[in-house]
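User: My instructor asked us to take a sequence, write out its structure as tokens, and then describe one feature of it. I'm not sure where to start. Here is the sequence I was given:
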Amino acid sequence: ALAESPETVAKHGEAIVRKLEESDRGVLYAALGALAESPETVAKHGEAIVRKLEDSFEGVRCAAIGALAKSSEMVAKHGEAIVRKLEDSDRDVRFAALLALARSPETVAKHGEAIVRKLEHSDEGVRRAALGAL
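Assistant: Let's start with the prediction itself. The structure tokens for your sequence are:
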């Protein structure tokens, strides 16, 4: 499968990124999952992935965060956008954002206050993820 080979994903990254413009959520989710297998491709197409953080479907937002989280450099570069997802309407997106932020100590240091606020979240998984990020 394409997603099992970072080299293949890197080679065909442009074609995969074009799928981020599809309206089909399944295609979007699959494209983000494939991109996540190649940190090189994530770094090259980070802006296109960040745009998917605003998708109306929470699964796509989670997949976009997951793709960015494959690289601590991408988490640091797009930390502001990921931190905004701590206030997302969906619990899974908030959880994914905390897990991603934990990959970048620099970003955690910069946005510690936002993460600390999640220690009081009503969902215990979000609270645990906030502790893990700190």
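For the description part of your assignment, you could build on this observation: Residues 7 and 30 are 17 Å apart (CA to CA). Try explaining in your own words what that tells you about the chain.
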